[in-house]
Amino acid sequence: MPGLEHYMAQYDHEHHSTWNKLLHGIGIPLIFAGIVLLVMLRWQWGLACFVGGWMLLFLGNRIEGNKPAFFQGPIYLLVGPVWVAKEIWETVTGAHSRQDAAAPKKP
Fold this sequence. Notes:
This protein is mainly α. The chain is built from five helices and no strands. The protein has helices at about 5-15, 20-40, 45-65, 75-95, 95-100. Helix 1 crosses helix 4 (about 75-95) and helix 2 (about 20-40) packs antiparallel against helix 3. It is globular, with a radius of gyration of 15 Å.
């Protein structure tokens, strides 16, 4: 069975558009906020966040031209939030710019 690194690499490969990353960065936290609000019995807000988050994810995948990763398996419902957390962390810490600078130049 493949490990987390495999799934993260696959998810990263299918989510390289800036717009798709942005929409996932907003949509996935919205989905989680919706779940929390639904558990707290804030039905209208919870449902709005949950549905709105999914709409952003589907829009991002449409822009990218990909099917949502969870169509490949339910494991991606867990990989997505981890990937978003990694992307946010790398953006906040500047790791993206260091990785881009260290990447070999294409001819």
